[in-house]
Specification:
Strand order of the largest sheet: 7-6-8-12-15-16
Helix content: 55-70%
Strand content: 5-15%
Oligomer: single chain
Number of helices: 36
Largest sheet: 6 strands, mixed
Structural class: alpha/beta
Distance between the termini: 79 Å
Shape: globular
Radius of gyration: 31 Å
Length: 820
């Protein structure tokens, strides 16, 4: 290869790596020695790109126009110039002209897979900016094929990365994550800039998945990386994504970041992208509470500008926000007129469809039309559930509920405003079980996940120090496990909430009552349902209740730690008083309606962690806490007449753990016990698929940031919530005799997730666990007696109530799921 060509190749490599100063030097040397008209043109074309990327887009644009006027160049060279011009036109926001330029380029580059692939890749990006995600998928797919034929692994990875992003826009979150992760392994090794691109798009996936805090951190990192390389266009894109991500969490900051992005775009002569940033800033202003009449004029002008640039997706979101402003101002005629101009259909992003439904519900409610308001909320939640049903991961399903939080809250408010118990039941079910309506599916076996969990067990067992290589490896493994679990496909089916009549038939058969505690806007309401009555009870504000519930956790922990010393009596007295205060608000108003019945509890997420079995009025009464009443009915239909196969495990360093499982095993014929060196993750997994009842006694740890990494300690390290997904079969009843494993993390106000939820999602009917510290002595005595009762035919929740009522100590164990 001649020296000039070699220098040009090295210059392009420097450009791809973001080393623009070095690229300029190489291009200067290449041009001096070039002896071909086409080579000189191509060197100048690379120079045009460098100028555009480093702060002078007009110079780059002018150079391309000049190159097109040169005579005698090869068709392929003209194709490259058109392709570069299309890229610069894209950056300027001139979408129609960019599409024309790429059409010329693609026609001229058919005989060169490398150049054709690059042109298709760039045209796909134009489709993305115009909101034409399906056309983008077509171009990125063709680009990937062309680049594969050319043997360009890194460029192929770029096409696949962008294809993943396009899939995100059409709602294929799992496909997007897989493609971006796979491409990221290649792109991340190329340069800081490419790593930042991967992080930016992964952040958008995290936002779509309902994990904005992680997304914000990733976007901050990516924006800094772009800024350090003076890649202002990329930096502005990242800032724009960050602004949209911040909208719900911090609209004031979102507005500041969006305005900064707009300035950067205008500095890069990219007016269309600047308009997108202007739209984000205006939406943030509205989200922060702005309602001035002048705001609507700004909305209208910006919507016209956006549509003029072909940016229909951003225009639609802004139009919907304009409707909201008119509703808030009380101008319902204007709001209705604005809404009729908005076009949303099945091809619109899921988040846009949810916003459209929410705005329509707001307007209907403001007009006093509660029936249509409920219909819009119901349709919006149906859209969300259908989307959720495509994912098999409990973690991903539960984080997605954030997109439906406002809709579900509005539905509850409408139902409570009507006061009709049937409506309150329907909406308590819809709001409480945003995941529960999705049909669970067993994820496929994944050897990589199994290997990563094994390595995690080893590393976490060694307790690596902060900021060590081992700690970084733990973080890397946890992220990979979580994301690979996200890859699992869902069943694609969604169930409707049970009817009140269906519930009442089952309650009559079981001599039970439903108590559904609903928390909306700091007020608690209880719906009580028995076989022959329904009542909606107002239970007051949550202000002092939250303090009391927080205090209960502390009191129970202290009481478990001081059972026989001088602090025992005053701690028990304080605990009794606080339990009485909480019960006075949550239980006492329901007492006369409940009689002596068993109770099915479906508490709002705001009440997660309440020690229900210890509250006066519920002590000694069989209680169970399913994900929803609908799910309770499903679980109730799938019960064994009596468990036969029982497995018990004693983890290390539990004072009476081995005694606990030995005494429990004595109540069952042929029970299998794992203790000491046998109590390993592999042996527990083998045991779990063989038994009807699995009892795990060990130290437990709830992980709030990702509850599926909550774990019970075994001989070879922690056994995680994610390990449950690897089981081919799930026991009917699971006993978690481990502190904290009854605790939950609440996502988006309602969805409670933790180790107990993971077992129920995997197929267990009933899970016994404690939301707080439980003393080893109490666990040993209580559960030995519980096994004796269950072995002789008692239902799990009935046995727990009987044991707890006769205990001399505090028994904070709860029954989750079917219960009986």
């Amino acid at each position: 290869m001649p020296a000039s060509e070699l220098l040009h190749v090295r210059a392009k490599q420097a450009v791809n790596g973001g080393a623009f100063v070095r690229a300029r030097s190489l291009l200067d040397r290449a041009r001096v020695t070039a002896d071909s008209t086409d080579l000189v043109a191509r060197i100048d074309l690379t120079r045009a790109y460098v100028e555009a990327e480093t702060g002078d887009p007009e110079a780059g644009f002018a150079m391309c126009r000049t190159l097109l006027e040169r005579q005698g160049l090869a068709s392929e060279t003209y194709g490259l110039i058109w392709s570069q011009l299309g890229l610069l036109l894209t950056r300027r926001g001139e979408g129609d002209q960019a599409m024309d330029a790429f059409a010329h380029a693609i026609d001229l580059l058919q005989d060169n897979d490398e150049y054709l692939g690059r042109a298709l890749l760039n045209r796909g990006n134009v489709h993305l900016h115009r909101g034409d995600a399906r056309d983008a998928v077509t171009d990125f797919t063709a680009a990937g094929e062309a680049l594969r034929r050319a043997g360009l692994t890194q460029q192929q990875a770029k096409a696949e990365h962008n294809l993943g992003y396009a899939r995100l826009l059409i709602g294929d979150l799992v496909g997007a994550l897989q493609m971006i992760d796979e491409a990221g392994a290649v792109l991340g090794s190329m340069s800081v800039a490419n790593r930042a691109v991967v992080e930016q798009d992964r952040a958008e996936i995290l936002t779509a998945a309902g994990r904005p805090h992680e997304a914000i951190a990733a976007l901050d990192t990516a924006a800094s990386a772009y800024g350090s390389r003076r890649l202002r266009t990329f930096q502005a894109e990242c800032e724009l994504t960050l602004a949209w991500t911040l909208l719900r969490e911090d609209p004031a900051r979102a507005r500041v970041v969006a305005r900064k992005a707009a300035r950067h775009f205008r500095g890069q002569a990219s007016p269309a992208r600047a308009l997108r940033a202007d739209a984000a800033a205006l939406v943030a202003e509205i989200a922060a509470g702005a309602r001035q009449a002048s705001l609507l004029n700004r909305v209208d002008a910006l919507v016209d500008d956006l549509r003029g640039q072909g940016l229909s997706r951003d225009a639609t979101v802004l139009e919907l926000q304009g409707v909201r402003v008119s509703v808030a101002r009380g101008d319902l005629v204007d709001a209705r007129a604005r809404l009729t101009r908005v076009r949303v259909d099945g091809g619109s992003p899921v988040t846009t469809r949810l916003l459209w439904r929410e705005v329509r519900a707001e307007l209907a409610q403001a007009r006093g039309d509660r029936r249509h308001a409920r219909q819009h909320v119901r349709s919006g939640l149906d859209d969300l559930h259908q989307w959720q049903s495509s994912f098999g991961s409990l973690d991903l399903q539960s984080t997605l509920v954030g997109h439906g939080r406002d809709l579900a809250t509005r539905g509850l408010m409408l139902a409570l405003g009507d006061g009709d118990p049937a409506l309150v039941f329907e909406w308590s079910e819809r709001a409480r079980a945003l995941v529960g309506r999705v049909t669970p599916v067993r994820p496929p076996a994944d050897e990589q996940v199994a290997s990563d969990l094994t390595e995690l067990r080893l590393l976490q067992g060694e307790q690596p120090g902060r900021r060590t290589a081992e700690a970084r490896r733990v973080a890397e493994l946890r992220q990979r496990v979580r994301q690979r679990r996200w890859y699992g496909e869902g069943a694609g089916s969604v169930g409707e909430p049970a009817s009140l009549a269906e519930l009442q038939v089952a309650l009559k058969s079981d001599d039970a009552a439903l108590v559904a505690h609903v928390v909306v806007h700091d007020r608690v309401t209880a719906l009580v349902v028995t076989s022959d009555l329904t009542r909606v009870l107002e239970l007051g504000h949550t202000g002092s209740l939250r303090d009391q519930l927080d205090g209960l956790t502390s009191d129970l922990t202290m009481a478990a730690a001081h059972r026989h010393d001088a602090l025992a009596a005053p701690l028990r007295a304080a605990l009794r008083d606080r339990l009485g205060v909480v019960a006075a608000q949550l239980v006492a108003p329901c007492a006369d309606l409940l009689g002596e019945r068993r109770v099915v509890l479906t508490p709002s997420g705001a009440l997660a962690g309440t020690p229900w079995s210890l509250l006066p009025g519920f002590v000694g009464r069989p209680l169970t806490i399913p994900p929803s009443a609908t799910r309770w009915l499903e679980l109730r239909e799938n019960r064994l007449t009596r468990p036969r196969r029982v497995g018990l495990v004693a983890g290390p360093n539990v004072a009476r753990g081995e005694e606990e499982v030995a005494r429990a095993a004595a109540e069952w014929p042929a029970a299998k016990v794992l203790r000491g060196a046998e109590a390993t993750a592999a042996h527990v997994a083998e045991l779990a698929v063989e038994v009807d009842v699995l009892h795990l006694a060990g130290h437990g740890r709830h992980t709030g940031e990702n509850p599926l990494f909550s774990a019970v300690e075994l001989t070879d390290g922690p056994w995680f919530g994610y390990d449950i997904d690897l089981l081919s079969r799930t026991p009917e009843t699971v006993v978690l005799s481990a502190c904290e494993l009854g605790r939950v993390s609440v996502r988006s106000g309602e969805e409670a997730i933790g180790m107990s939820a993971a077992w129920l999602h995997a197929g267990a009917r009933t899970v016994l666990s404690s939301p707080v510290l439980i003393a080893d002595d109490v666990a040993c005595e209580t559960l030995a007696r519980w096994h004796a009762l269950v072995a002789h035919g008692s239902a799990p929740a009935d046995a727990l109530a009987e044991v707890a009522a006769s205990a001399d100590d505090v028994v904070p164990l709860l029954s989750f799921g079917a219960g009986w």
